[in-house]
Design goal:
This protein is of the alpha/beta class. It has 9 helices and 7 strands, in the order E-H-E-H-E-H-E-H-E-H-H-E-H-H-H-E. It has a 7-stranded parallel sheet, sandwiched between helices.
Length: 260
C-alpha cells in the first residue's frame, strides 16, 4: 500500500476503533498524532503505537474536538510537531444509543457534539493546510445505521448522517486541490473496551444488552459483527495514495447488512 512516510491525525484515538486505526497506520509506516479528550487513556495508548522505523515517534494531543478552539489547537500542534499533515481520520464519536423518546436535551446535544461537530471542526481546520500543500486525505468514520435504520440508533444516525452528507460536497469542492474525502461506515463492531464494559454489567443489564446485540447480529447476513482490524484496513486504504481516484464515497464495512 502506498502510504509509508505519510503523517496522520487520528481523532478519538485513545481507545476502540481510533486506537486500532492509529496502530494500523503506524504499522504501515505512517507517523500518527493521536487525539482524544481523555488524557489518561491517551497516555496509556501512546506506547502501544508501533514504531515507524524512524526517529520520529507518534505524538498525542488532549483536546475537546467538539469545540472550534479544540480543533484549532489539535491541528496547530500536530503541524508544529510533525511539520505537515497528509491524512485526517475523523473517528472521534460515540453514540448515546437508546430509544428516541428516552433521549434528554443533554444526550441529544452530546450525540451531536461527539459525532458531527468533532468531524466538522477538525475538517474545517485541516482543509486550508491541505489546500496549501495541494494534497490530502480525509477519512471519516460514519455508521451503517444511517442506511439501515437500526433499532435505538435514530439520533446517533442523525449525527452520523451529517458526516455522510457533507462528504460528497467537500469531495467535489476540493477535488482540484487533490484532496479526497471519504467515509468508512461500519456495522456492529465489538471493540475490546465494549467487551470489557459488558463484563462489568449486572446480570439483568447484560441479558438485555445481549438481546439487543443479537437483534442487530441477525440483521447481518455474515452472521457476526465486524472487527477493529477490518475497519482499520478500510480506513488505511482510503488514506493511501492507492485511493487517489476514490473520493466522495461511503465505504460500508457491514457484512452485507445493507447492499446496493
Amino acid at each position: 500500500m502506498k502510504i509509508s512516510g505519510r503523517t496522520a491525525i487520528v481523532t478519538g484515538a485513545a481507545s476502540g476503533l481510533g486506537l486500532g486505526i492509529a496502530r494500523h497506520l503506524a504499522s504501515l509506516g505512517v507517523r500518527v498524532c493521536l487525539a482524544d479528550i481523555d488524557e489518561q487513556d491517551l497516555i496509556r495508548a501512546l506506547p502501544t503505537i508501533p514504531s515507524t522505523g524512524t526517529a520520529d515517534a507518534a505524538c498525542a494531543v488532549t483536546s475537546d474536538l467538539s469545540t472550534r478552539q479544540g480543533a484549532q489547537r489539535l491541528v496547530a500542534t500536530a503541524i508544529d510537531t510533525m511539520g505537515h499533515i497528509d491524512i485526517l481520520v475523523n473517528n472521534a464519536g460515540g453514540g448515546v444509543i437508546r430509544p428516541t423518546l428516552a433521549h434528554t436535551e443533554a444526550t441529544l446535544r452530546e450525540t451531536m457534539d461527539r459525532n458531527l461537530w468533532t468531524m466538522l471542526y477538525c475538517t474545517l481546520e485541516i482543509i486550508p493546510h491541505m489546500v496549501e500543500r495541494n494534497y490530502g486525505r480525509v477519512v471519516s468514520i460514519g455508521a451503517e445505521s444511517v442506511r439501515n435504520g437500526l433499532w435505538q440508533h435514530a439520533v446517533y444516525s442523525a449525527a452520523k448522517g451529517g458526516v455522510h452528507g457533507i462528504t460528497p460536497g467537500l469531495a467535489r469542492e476540493f477535488a482540484p486541490n487533490h484532496i479526497t474525502f471519504n467515509v468508512v461506515a461500519p456495522a456492529m463492531v465489538i471493540t475490546p473496551e465494549h467487551a470489557a464494559l459488558m463484563q462489568r454489567m449486572s446480570t439483568a443489564d447484560r441479558h438485555e444488552h445481549d438481546r439487543f446485540l443479537e437483534q442487530i447480529r441477525c440483521s447481518i447476513p455474515s452472521g457476526r459483527g465486524g472487527t477493529v482490524d477490518e475497519v482499520a484496513a478500510a480506513a488505511a486504504y482510503l488514506a493511501s495514495d492507492d485511493a487517489g481516484f476514490v473520493t466522495g464515497q461511503i465505504l460500508s464495512v457491514n457484512g452485507g447488512s445493507s447492499m446496493l
